[in-house]
Design brief:
about 280 residues; alpha/beta; 8-stranded parallel β-sheet; about 35% helix; globular
Amino acid sequence: MADYEQSLPVSVLDTFPTVDEAAVDKLLLAEIERDPHKIVVLDDDPTGVQTVHDVSVYTDWSEESIREGFLEKNKVFYVLTNSRGMSQDETAAAHADIARVIARISRETGIPYLVISRSDSTLRGHYPLETETLRRGMEADGHALDGEVLCPFFEEGGRLTIGGTHYVRQGDTLVPAAQTEFARDPTFGYSHSHLPEYVEEKTEGSYRAEDVTVIGLPELRACDYDGIEEKIEQVSDFGKVCVDATCYADVKVFCVSLFRAMAKGRRFMFRSAAGLVKV
């Protein structure tokens, strides 16, 4: 068994340095306030919206609903697709339609956007079908994407990523996700917990594990904003970026660098659990 498929004691979490989260929050708020994008969250299951508050949730993707979401004051709005319960053909058609509608309303309102495909923190769901479909729709509208960010972290559920490997907390043990019952899902099963390997598996080799960029805990806990931004800016051709996270501070540090890269014109798609959206 590969090293990244080995369980870890929960005590490993105490070995990482902490960060000044208040200082990170201040930087992140400044970047968010400067960022012009409307954030559209496509939620494939109703459980995702239960983790957020004071955010609009639309149950369809009609032009009227998407326009209302773009014009409201909130930076973020949700569209509940329930696509985890759809067939591959159904979700492909739905996401192609969603991409067209979002692009049309963005042009109409003059408001730029980014899309977060919110899915399961245990790596189940129609991946990469949904984000590839969205990508094709966005690029057909003239919006090329540099990369895709994968962040399945969800602290409340004990779903943590360390060294590129995604773990599920079970008692006092961090179990690699591929060693849990979730990976044996009859529809969305998988055999790799290491996210770069998971990407290669799910994309059937279209994106190789060795080409995936991992943003690791050492650089996140060091608040190496410039170094992380540089790594993000090197991603191209819809390359994959996997983010380590064991607490929300890790996601916040990453997002500071992400917003700075986007301010320079970099564009990304996101496949995440609820953790990234909450930040």
